[in-house]
Design goal:
Layout lengths: L1 H44 L3 H14 L6 H17 L3 H13 L3 H18 L2 H14 L4 H13 L3 H13 L5 H8 L9 H9 L4 H10 L5 H14 L4 H13 L3 H9 L9 H13 L3 H14 L4 H14 L4 H23 L4 H13 L3 H14 L4 H13 L13 H4 L29
Helix pairs in contact: 1-2, 1-3, 2-3, 3-4, 4-5, 4-6, 5-6, 5-7, 5-10, 6-7, 7-8, 7-10, 11-12, 12-13, 13-14, 13-15, 15-16, 16-17, 17-18, 18-19, 19-20, 20-21
Amino acid sequence: MRIGKNWWIGGGLGVLGLGCVLSLIPVLAATNLESQVRRAERALSEGRVEEAQPICDRLLANHPTSLDSATLAHVRLLAARAAFATDDFSGGIAYVRPLLEQRDSRAQRWVVQQAEHLAIAHGRLAPAEQMLVAELQLDRRYLPALRLLTQILRAEGRWHSATQRCYEQLRRSQFTRADLIFLISPELENSEEERVLQIQRRASSHPLVHFARLRRNPHRKPSQWVESLQRLARKAPKCIELQATLGKALAATGQPDQFRQWREQLPAQAWSHPGIWYAAAIELSQQAQPRAAIRCCWESLRRQADQPPVYRLLVQLLEQQRDHRLPHYRRRAEQLADLVATAGVLRDSPGHLQSLRRVMTLCRDLGRYWEAAGWAVEMEACDPSDVTTRELQRTIRGHLADDLPVVVESYDPVLRCRLDSYPLPDWLATPPEMSHPPVWPVPSP
């Protein structure tokens, strides 16, 4: 009996001990996971990336359900830091993608901070842009990323792309006076933000920064202008905006052989850029092919409306052809010329109330309600007591809606008076499909 009793007591104690051990396993496992996270943190802080990366990978692969959401997010950010430290930017974005998809504010801020550090501290514009574009693909409304990307594009002289991003900011009511002037005419806006200038100073050797400065100060002999653009185009052959500027310069300086060589080396996707079509229009107009030049002007405006230089050329060509649609295009060209001139006055005299009211009214009359609303805010800030301005502002805001395009279609002669009956140039049998939707006539989702 004593033996049996002892057996029962020993067995009970054994079960109790086993239960205690089993209950400690999750605690030990959690402690082990925490120690691994701390090891990764310490390795990264000491610059031992090759040690931190495998730890993070093992944690994410083997223990994703064992980590609470905050720790899991922290491990993803550690892994992304390790990837960025080895210049694996696409890999780093892949680590934080689940967080960005969830609109995790910490991850969103972190990506912008990393991109800003790359651009401003190191002048590495391409990876910074890559990170911001990836973030905006998941949340196009995230304003800090949108603002920084716009500044990088402006620092690189890529005005067409910057315009698209600038309009996204305007839709979110995040804009400056300089943004509004830039949207009317990039050539006018010369008061660059400090962060744009910081980017340019740090990336001073970047070919696109040279391109931006060249566009700001184009006062040189035509031959020097072309040579400078050709030199930059060799260094940055994939920049379509730079290629478009070069094409326009070649056409304007009467170099048909060089223009043909330039045109033949363009990739197919280049024809989604309005500047490429405008360059073709200039060349065709000088080669006594006005009908094909008209079509190229129209194709350019179809991709980006309200380009004053394109309108000027198109009006001249339509006058030669005595086209019955000329009055619609001429009226628009005159309004655009007035808008640019008035914006120039505001650039030099910011508090000129008459010009403020004029530019706001012109934007409204052109069907550019988003810009009209922006100028109404500027007008109200300068003269809050003006009753007429407040009433006009209410009228303009009454037109705004999420699906309102940048230019209301009923105002745009390019959409109302189509010119696709004119032929394309012989060397372009069919118009290449637009690989990207036009920024102007199509509303943003």
